[in-house]
Design goal:
5-stranded antiparallel β-sheet, alpha+beta
C-alpha cells in the first residue's frame, strides 16, 4: 500500500471533519451546516462508508478527506498529506526537495531573529524604534509580528549567518545576500525596518523592508525565490487565518503597518496583499477560509486602478470556471453561481486604514459594515467619472459595465443590475439585454444548463478505472489533445485528481514530475510503470475510460443523493428538495444515455 493510501485509511473523515464543524448523525451519514458556504439548513453531508463528503447546497461539490482539508485550510495536497500523516503518526520520509525548503525556512528564521534582536536592543535601531512609536505600534505587536532592523552594513547579516554555519550559496538563494558579478557579495537589506513575511503555516518565507532614510525604493521585498512568491501570499495570513475563519470574513489592505495596527486594535482578520494587484493565487488562500472578502484600498488613482484589477481577480477566481462535459448529443456547458460576497471599501482621501483605526476603531468597523457590494462599487466608480447626459459617455459606461453584468451567473442578480444600468444610461432594458446576448459565448442554454451543478464524489482507496485512465494518458502523450471531456471531478481520489490537474497543466513529463509533491511523484512513477496491454487505438480506449469514469461518477452521486433524500428531507427547505429531485431526474437521464448508446470499445478498461 502506498503511503498516501495508508494515511487515507488511518484518517477517519468523520473525525477530521468534526474538528471543523459539529456533525449530526443522520441515518448512515452525518450532516452539518456547510463550512464552505453560508446556509440555514444543513446540506453538507459526510459519508463514513465511502469516506467522503458532499455539499448538496450551492457548493455542489465534495471529495475525500484530503480535499476537505485542502479546501478548509487553504493548503495544497502535499500539505494536507503531511497534516494527516502527523495525526496518524505515520512518518513521511523527508525528500531532498523538502530538506532544502526546510533549510531555507531556517535561514530566514535566523535572519528574522537577528533583525528582531537588533530592533529591540541595538543603539543603531533607535530611529526604527522611534518610527514605530510614532505609528503607535506597541511592543506586543513588535514582538508578535517579529519586526526587525537591518543594520547599515554590507556584511553584517552575511557574517552572522555564515558564522552560524550557513552556506553563502543558500543565503543568495533565499535572497538575503546579493552576489556581485565581479565577485563578492553584500547584504540586500541595509538600514531598514524589517517585516518578516510568513506563509500560512508560520514559516518565514521572505521579508518586506521599509527604508528609514531617504533611500529608494521606500519598500524593498525579498526577490522571488523557491519559497517566496509575493503574488501567492498575504502579509499576516499566519496570524489572521483563525480570526478569518471564526469571523467568516477577510479584510484585505495594502500595507504592513495597516495589518499590524488592525491586529493591535482587535481586527485580527486583516491581511495585506504584497504590491497593488490582488492575484488569483492569493484569493485561492482565502477561498478555504471564507467567502466574505472586503477589499480596502487607497482612494488615490493608483489605488483605484489596483481595486479594479483586484476586483476582477476576485470574481474570476471565486467563480467556478465553465467546464465542458461530454454528452452523446454534443457538449453541454456547466456553470456555477458565484457564491462569494466581495465588498469594497473606499478609504477617505489621503487616509490609510492604519490612520483610521488609530483615530477611531469604530469608524473602521463602520467602514467595513458599510462596504459596498463590488458591483455597486464599480457602478459608482464608473459613473462618477462620466457625464451621463452625453451619448459618448453613456456608451462608455455600457462598454465597461455590461460585460460585468453579462458575467453574472445568478439570473436575479443579473436582472437587478441590468435594470440599474438601463436606468443609469436611460436606455431601454431590451437594448442592453440584446447586448448581453452578444457578449455571452454559448453558455446560457436555458434553465437546465443554468441549474446544473458540478458534483464530485469519492470512493475509498484505489480505483482501478481512475488509475488505468491516468496510466494511459501518461504513457501515451499523443492523447493530450483527445482528453477533452475528461474532468478533474471524475477522479474521486484526491491523489488521482491532483495528478490529473497537474498533467493537464504540464507541457512535458519532466516539468510535470518536478512540480509535484513528493508523495505524488511516487504515485506518478507507479502509474508510469504500470503494465498496459498493447493498444492499437489508444484514443478509443481513452474514450471508453472517460465514459466509464463519468458513469461511475454519476452513479456514486446518485447513491449519495438517494441516501440523503431518504433520511433528512423533511427538514430541508421545499426548494432544496425540489432541486434534489430535479437533479435525480437529470442524473437518471444521463445514466440512461450511457446505457442506450454503448460503444464497441466498452470493456477495454478494467471493470470497477
Ligand atoms: Zn456548501
Amino acid at each position: 500500500m502506498s503511503v498516501i493510501d495508508e494515511i487515507k485509511q488511518k484518517a477517519d473523515i468523520v473525525e477530521v471533519v468534526s474538528e471543523y464543524v459539529p456533525l449530526q448523525k443522520a441515518g448512515r451519514s452525518f450532516r452539518a451546516l456547510c463550512p464552505f458556504h453560508p446556509e440555514k439548513h444543513p446540506s453538507f453531508f459526510v459519508f463514513p462508508e465511502q469516506q467522503s463528503w458532499h455539499c448538496f447546497g450551492s457548493c455542489a461539490s465534495g471529495g475525500d478527506v484530503f480535499s476537505f482539508l485542502m479546501r478548509k485550510e487553504g493548503i495544497d495536497f502535499g500539505e494536507a498529506l503531511r497534516l494527516l500523516a502527523e495525526r496518524a503518526g505515520i512518518p513521511l520520509t523527508p525528500k531532498p526537495q523538502d530538506e532544502k525548503r526546510e533549510r531555507l525556512y531556517r535561514i530566514n528564521k535566523m535572519a528574522a531573529d537577528y533583525y528582531h534582536h537588533l530592533l529591540l536592543h541595538s543603539a543603531e535601531a533607535e530611529g526604527a524604534r522611534n518610527y514605530l512609536a510614532g505609528r503607535g505600534i506597541s511592543q506586543e505587536s513588535i514582538i508578535g509580528f517579529r519586526l526587525g532592523f537591518s543594520p547599515d552594513s554590507w556584511q553584517a547579516l552575511h557574517q552572522h549567518l555564515t558564522q552560524m554555519g550557513y552556506e553563502e550559496e543558500d543565503l543568495v538563494i533565499v535572497g538575503l545576500v546579493v552576489k556581485r558579478e565581479e565577485g563578492g557579495s553584500y547584504d540586500r537589506f541595509r538600514n531598514r525596518l524589517m517585516f518578516p513575511i510568513n506563509n500560512p503555516q508560520g514559516h518565514v518565507v521572505g521579508f518586506g523592508a521599509r527604508a528609514l532614510d531617504a533611500s529608494l525604493p521606500k519598500y524593498l521585498n525579498s526577490p522571488q525565490t523557491t519559497i517566496f512568491d509575493k503574488s501567492s501570499i498575504f502579509y499576516g495570513i499566519d496570524l489572521a487565518k483563525t480570526p478569518i475563519r471564526r469571523q467568516d470574513m477577510a479584510v484585505i489592505v495594502e500595507g504592513y503597518t495597516d495589518v499590524i495596527t488592525a491586529h493591535q486594535h482587535g481586527f485580527g482578520n486583516v491581511v495585506a496583499s504584497m504590491g497593488t494587484a490582488l492575484t488569483e493565487k492569493q484569493v485561492g488562500i482565502l477561498k478555504g477560509l471564507t467567502k466574505n472578502i472586503v477589499l480596502s484600498l487607497d482612494a488615490d488613482a493608483a489605488g483605484e486602478e489596483a481595486t479594479w484589477r483586484g476586483v476582477e481577480t476576485v470574481t474570476r477566481s471565486l467563480d467556478q470556471k465553465v467546464v465542458l462535459i461530454p454528452t452523446w448529443r454534443g457538449m453541454v456547458k456547466y456553470e456555477n453561481e458565484i457564491d462569494a460576497e466581495v465588498r469594497v471599501i473606499t478609504m477617505p482621501p489621503g487616509k490609510d486604514p492604519d490612520d483610521i483605526i488609530r483615530e477611531d476603531a469604530k469608524a473602521w468597523q463602520s467602514l467595513i459594515d458599510d462596504a459596498l457590494p463590488m458591483v455597486e462599487y464599480i457602478f459608482v466608480a464608473v459613473s462618477s467619472k462620466l457625464d451621463l447626459t452625453k451619448a459618448k459617455d453613456k456608451s462608455s459606461a455600457v462598454e465597461r459595465l455590461l460585460p460585468l453584468v453579462a458575467e453574472m451567473k445568478d439570473l436575479m442578480r443579473q436582472a437587478h443590475y441590468l435594470q440599474k444600468l438601463a436606468r443609469l444610461v436611460e436606455v431601454n432594458e431590451g437594448v442592453l439585454e440584446a447586448g448581453i446576448k452578444g457578449l455571452q459565448p454559448s453558455n446560457r442554454r436555458g434553465k437546465i444548463s443554468q441549474e446544473r451543478q458540478r458534483p464530485l464524489v469519492s470512493l475509498p482507496l484505489t480505483s482501478p478505472v481512475e488509475e488505468y485512465c491516468l496510466a494511459l494518458l501518461l504513457q501515451h502523450p499523443e492523447l493530450k489533445g483527445s482528453s477533452q471531456g475528461l474532468l478533474p471531478d471524475y477522479f474521486e481520489e484526491s491523489k488521482n485528481r491532483q495528478l490529473f490537474i497537474a498533467w493537464q497543466q504540464a507541457t512535458e513529463l519532466i516539468s510535470l514530475r518536478s512540480g509535484l509533491d513528493v508523495a505524488l511523484q511516487e504515485h506518478l512513477d507507479s502509474l508510469l510503470a504500470k503494465a498496459l496491454p498493447p493498444i492499437s487505438h489508444p484514443e478509443y480506449v481513452l474514450a471508453d475510460c472517460v465514459l466509464r469514469l463519468r458513469e461511475k461518477f454519476l452513479r456514486s452521486l446518485k447513491t449519495k443523493e438517494r441516501e440523503v433524500n431518504l433520511m433528512g428531507s423533511q427538514d430541508m427547505e421545499g426548494t432544496e428538495l425540489i432541486k434534489l429531485q430535479e437533479r435525480a431526474i437529470e442524473i437518471n437521464t444521463q445514466l440512461g444515455e450511457v446505457f442506450i448508446e454503448p460503444r464497441g470499445q466498452r470493456r477495454l478498461a478494467p471493470k470497477e
